């Protein structure tokens, strides 16, 4: 009869290593992921990708003083549709800094821009992705997750500095150096940006395949009080162009406002 090896019978020199491995396994075998969910087309598709890949999703949204706060209503709908384990909304008032058309009343949202590739537009929110990813990292460490999803896209936008592959690689390194889990347990965090190199048309095609109802998403930067998209900001124009390419008569988000 074989004798089972107990922790007590392990030589003392190996106990620390064994304890380290047991603690680390709570992260390495976790199927949970934190998904940054704005309520827009990109984040909804990203959430669907995380679900497809077998993750139990903890969605995280932000009320940061954005003029398009209606997106939070849509984020809640999307989170419920995909059966998220949790959906939390963090309060971070970026209006105290301003510096963006999305958080300051002193700056208008650009409309009907013909050239969207010339420079970083005023809709860029300073350090927003860094802030959001930091919150997501804290959330992930608390629940024992190592995977964070973000719907960043570098194709249809004007070179936002926090939507580049190099930025995400550096943040992964920072996450391992700046957390208790990374320092004490050797946990390595992974930032997933599955839409990074896709066009808006490709994102919508992917979302449709994964069951995203784009009628319940919101991307407009400057909506009416009812939440109806303006139809003229960069986000609206990019969405409309993509849906038209796919044969849609109009953006499904408009159907709620007929």
UniProtKB/TrEMBL annotation:
It is an enzyme of class 6 (ligase). Keywords: ATP-binding, Ligase, Metal-binding, Nucleotide-binding, Zinc. GO terms for molecular function: ATP binding; ligase activity; metal ion binding. Signal peptide: none annotated. Its EC number is 6.3.4.20. Transmembrane segments: none annotated. Pathway: Purine metabolism; 7-cyano-7-deazaguanine biosynthesis. Gene3D superfamilies: HUPs. It catalyses: 7-carboxy-7-carbaguanine + NH4(+) + 2 ATP = 7-cyano-7-carbaguanine + 2 AMP + 2 diphosphate + 2 H(+). NCBIfam families: 7-cyano-7-deazaguanine synthase QueC. Belongs to the QueC family. This is 7-cyano-7-deazaguanine synthase.
């Amino acid at each position: 009869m074989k004798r089972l090896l107990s922790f007590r019978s392990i030589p003392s020199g190996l106990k620390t290593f064994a304890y380290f491995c047991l603690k680390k396994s709570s992260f390495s075998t976790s199927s949970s992921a934190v998904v940054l969910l704005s309520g827009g087309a990109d984040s909804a598709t990203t959430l669907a990708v995380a679900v497809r890949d077998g993750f139990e999703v903890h969605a995280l949204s932000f009320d940061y003083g954005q003029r398009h706060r209606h997106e939070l209503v849509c984020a809640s709908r999307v989170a419920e549709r995909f059966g998220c384990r949790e959906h939390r909304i963090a309060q971070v008032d970026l209006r105290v800094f301003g510096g963006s058309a999305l958080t300051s009343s002193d700056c208008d949202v650009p409309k009907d821009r013909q050239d969207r590739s010339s420079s970083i537009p005023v809709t860029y929110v300073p350090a927003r992705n860094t802030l959001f990813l930091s919150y997501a990292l804290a959330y992930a460490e608390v629940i024992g997750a190592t995977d964070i999803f973000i719907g960043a896209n570098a194709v249809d936008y004007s070179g936002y500095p926090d939507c580049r592959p190099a930025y995400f690689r550096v943040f992964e390194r920072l996450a391992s150096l700046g957390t208790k889990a990374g320092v004490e347990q050797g946990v390595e965090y992974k930032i997933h940006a599955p839409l990074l190199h896709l066009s808006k048309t490709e994102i919508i095609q992917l979302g449709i395949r994964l069951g995203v109802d784009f009628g319940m998403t919101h991307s407009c930067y400057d909506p009416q009080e009812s939440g109806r998209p303006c139809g003229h900001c960069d986000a609206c124009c990019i969405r409309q162009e993509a849906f038209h390419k796919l044969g849609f008569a109009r953006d499904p988000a408009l159907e709620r406002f007929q």
